[in-house]
Write a structure and sequence with these properties.
six-stranded antiparallel beta sheet; 564 residues; alpha/beta; single chain; globular
Amino acid sequence: MRIRDTGDLWWKNAVVYCLDVETYMDWNDDGVGDLAGLIQRIDHLAELGVTCLWLMPFYPTADRDDGYDISDYFGVDERLGDAGDVVELIRTARDRGIRVIADLVVNHTSDRHPWFRSARRSPDSPYRDFYVWRTDPPPDTSAEVVFPDKEDGIWTWDEQAQAWYRHRFYKHQPDLNTANPQVRDAIAKVAGYWAQVGMSGFRVDAVPFFLADAANDPHDEVERPHQFLQQLRTFLTRRVGDSILMGEVNLPYEEQVLFFGDHDGDGEHEGEELNLQFDFVLMQQMYLALARQDAGVLAAALEARPPIPHDAQWATFVRNHDELTLDKLSDDERQEVFDAFGPDEDMQLYGRGLRRRLPPMLDGDPRRIRMVYSLLFTLPGTPVLFYGEEIGMGENLAAEGRLAVRTPMQWTSGKNGGFSAAAPSKLSGPVVEGAFAPKHVNVASQRRDPDSLLSFVQLLARRYRECPELGWAERAEIVEQPHASVLAHRCTWQEASMVAVHNLGPHAVTVPLQLDDADETCRLVDLLVDDEHALDADGRAEIELDGYGYRWLRVVRPDSRRLL
């Protein structure tokens, strides 16, 4: 390991955990989760193996989009606490070796933000140009809306302004005009403020949307939209040298590399932009593979990943806080996933995704659930967990839209799952009911059970952190073997090399492996259980794999000094 290669690129082998303060832990029992409650649960995250905590928006909000409609970028929602609580959270997390990042939502504001209130009052307002307006009637834009079940276009007439304003999301979220240098400066001030408070970076919401307006004026100070992202990254790096921008860029691979700053496709930075990007393509192919119980499309997606710059990283995930989008699949492929995991119309959203969590989609089968999370941690990249995944939480389809997967965290089997002592009617969201209710799924019962899902995810996180090749390998090498249901892939970085084998099907198989660079002096040591396999002179071994089985096999050479 060379210091000049690795530097302080902590995000290459981080374990990221996303949560909404409002639904995590209510310490004052008013029904709403708060920062004080989250601070009390930092040790749960530390024991889990989390190294980076991603906070969904905690800013003042009109609360019409679960906090993503922000009315003050520099404040804290008074229901959740105050700025002092944020500082205490960051300090406590750092003490446990956990960095904290926050959502940076700069595509739009709430229509109650002081900027927009001023902008709509007069064409002469200094904030008028902070937003995107038009005075002529817009054409049909129904095909451009993000939420087709809620909006029928991206322009809304404002009586006070006597003009149309643009909103690619909800009408109560007017788009910021990033072509305006003053808007870009304001965004930099927001990032700089929270970096000074102690944030280690940001998860950047809807990146392609907020870059769309930059550089649309020939006299602007940026020549092309990506220069704005480069400037933001440069500014943030100056303020906090090891800070990150983790971007939501749901685009095909060939377009995603642009957001890493690779504009000629050679895997090198022309201008540093995002440090991490969520791999939506791989996630969607994973669900198609699970539906088919055929690993072929997943292997193809791994091979299709383009080279990315040395300092960049893919963020891998099973679920996030939004709908499980399947927009990159064909109509027929999407229907396969719907049929397998969300056949009821109420389980689907926007015609493109599912509002379900993984365990109910897999009928609670512990073999399949564990296999999927084992797969997540072995995919080259940085794993991102959504709160509750570590215990196998389900969804509540009685909640509206995407809120079905944003239910209160389940700490105990008691009232409201130990989230709050308030009356159920006062909770920030409905608790999960049925087979995945707190009575059956909670932290307290699992943390003392060595065979629980929580204990298993802790093991995965620990082993992942011990395997630098999973974060640093330039790509996954697909290991040829004859079973359609099996994905065998190898990650290698310097002297570290591991073969991961996962069976997406229900039937036991014997998997023949051949490693061309190994011989009988090497062995394959399983990192999850006490087992190992010898290789013959040609580097061959046979691995027994149960239905939905998985193996993490470290390639150990005679001179290896790594702990196993």
